[in-house]
Amino acid sequence: MNVLHAIAGLLLLLLLSACTGAQSAFDTGGVEAERVLGMFWIMVVGAAVIWIFVIGLSCYVTRVSPRAVDDRIGIRLIIWGGCVFPTLVLAGLLFWGLGMMPELRRPADGPTIAVSGERFWWRVAYDVEGGPGVVRNLPPGGVPSANEIWLPVGQRSTILLGSPDVIHSFWAPSLAGKMDAIPGRVNRLVMEPTRTGVYNGVCAEFCGEAHAQMGFRVVVVSEQEYAAYVRAQAAPAAVTQGPGVDLFLRNGCAACHSVRGTTADGQIGPDLTHVASRRTIGAGLLPTTPENIAAFIRSTDHVKPGVEMPSFGMLPEAEVTAIAQWLGSLE
Amino acid sequence: MRLFGLYGRTQDTLWTLIAAPAIWGVHFLFSYFYAAYRCAPNADIFASIGGTRIVVGIATVAALVLIGLVFRRAWVEWQAKGGTVRHDRDTAEDREHFLEFSTVLLAALSFVAVAFDVMPVLLIGDCR
Hints:
Chain A: The chain crosses the membrane at residues 40-61, 73-98. Chain A is of the alpha+beta class and 331 residues long. Chain A has a domain at 243-327: Cupredoxins -  blue copper proteins (Immunoglobulin-like, Sandwich). Helix content of chain A is 39%, strand content 19%. Chain A has eight helices and 13 strands. In chain A, strands 3-9-6-1-2-4 form a six-stranded mixed beta sheet. With 128 residues, chain B is mainly α. Chain B has one domain (14-123). Chain B is built from four helices and no strands. In chain B, helix 1 runs antiparallel to helix 2, helix 1 runs parallel beside helix 3 and helix 2 packs antiparallel against helix 3. Chain B is elongated, with a radius of gyration of 18 Å. The A-B interface holds A 75, 83, 87, 90-91, 94-95, 98-99, 101-102, 105, 107, 131-136, 185, 188 and B 40-43, 45-46, 85, 108, 112, 115-116, 119-120, 122-126, 128.
């Protein structure tokens, strides 16, 4: 029994530990997530009441007072308890849930940010102009970034979601519900963060081998900090000359990556102009340090199996280190 | 009109059985295709779709009335023969009772399903 108790205690602890943190729908930081959580608790309480009644009734008729029940009573119980009651409850829940949608999707007053789900990372562009729709792609332009989305607190920001390859789903559980990023159409998600902080997001639609390593961060800051951040992201790279730059260009990294201020203008992979200002590399995979950048360059497919970028293990150690040092300085 | 039992007793078949779910299916496809068609290319998501809501509303009333007639026919015939729920003998009469009772259940389900399908039209007035 003691072992069972210990296992039960451990499971309870694990369960409760999932209720807080940067990626928990129970630890909300946004209006939509708060509404969803409120709905969840009401449904949990309602479900518990129904469960207790059904189990109680079943115990009563089988243990406390076991006797034959008239057919008519049985059929009435099935019709009222099994058909009419669930239909009314579901109708009420559907009405309530649908009624929330126009309010959550009403026009936004904050910035418009384009987020493209790509195998297996998130292309981000701040301050784009455009809207949702079908048979179209995300609006071009804007201030490019990747895998980290900054939002001003208290404002309703529009996230325009698209994809050039397969269906992805953009989900930051603490802030809002999930929304699909679908090739050939632009979806709109409104996020209204209510407190500052760093939140985790994930791809919530299986998209291939590295689907589970396709994370992102959402950084919620004040309006002023947001404006300053976007201005800084729009500027060219902090260091545009030196051995790291030369090696980056000579080894062909610029075919896929951009570093504004240098001749590197590849568009296939993430923009690296301010890569060191982001908290993670590899789409939420590793903390941004020169050592981790070097490890990612050397054995990309080991760090992130399925990634499109090839490993550059053939490069001399000194060259990888120099490139990683340079990238690690690009704040 | 025989299907809806307006002229007395009818023979139940698989066609009478699936009539109500078929009406539900047609109503569902029509409502969602029509709303998608009217909203395409979905560029102006805040534009009102009052006309679309009215058309879907008319289709809903029509679907509910048709399902109601299917229900009524099956209900009347099922009740006329006692309204019992057990029909497991290998006879033509029991098969008929079984089909009538199943039609009653399916028509009730289809009625609720159509009402649920149409609820977004009540609450959402644009292409969001």
